[in-house]
């Protein structure tokens, strides 16, 4: 991120409860923050919308149905 280059997508995998969702939102905030680019302030409108899963550029995919196991 500090060099202005990031992959086009990230995939967070692992057992339930290890912090994948929290980490993904923190990364999204750091990448999109208006006040503290590269870190995320947690207070600007962009960070707020990301934290409430309302930002149009942050997409969360979750398994459903039989694929959950």
- Number of helical regions: 2
Uncertain stretches of 5 or more adjacent residues = none
Order of helices and strands: HH
Cα end-to-end separation: 34 Å
Beta-strand share of residues: under 5%
Reported for the largest beta sheet, the result is: none
Categorize the overall geometry: globular
What is the percent of helical residues? 25-40%
Structural Rg? 13 Å
Structural class: mainly alpha
Count of DSSP strands: 0
Mean pLDDT over the full residue set: 88
Multimeric status of the protein:
single chain
Description:
With 69 residues, the chain is mostly helical. It is 29% helix and 0% strand. The chain is built from two helices and no strands. It has helices at residues 20-32, 45-51. Helix 1 (20-32) packs antiparallel against helix 2.
Characterize this entry briefly:
This protein is an all-alpha fold and 69 residues long. The chain has two helices and no strands.
């Amino acid at each position: 991120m500090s060099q202005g280059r990031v992959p086009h997508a990230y995939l967070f995998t692992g057992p339930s409860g290890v912090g994948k969702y929290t980490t993904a939102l923190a990364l999204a905030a750091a990448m999109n923050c208006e006040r503290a680019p590269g870190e995320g302030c947690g207070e600007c409108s962009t960070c707020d919308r990301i934290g409430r899963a309302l930002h149009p550029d942050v997409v969360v995919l979750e398994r459903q149905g039989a694929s959950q196991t």
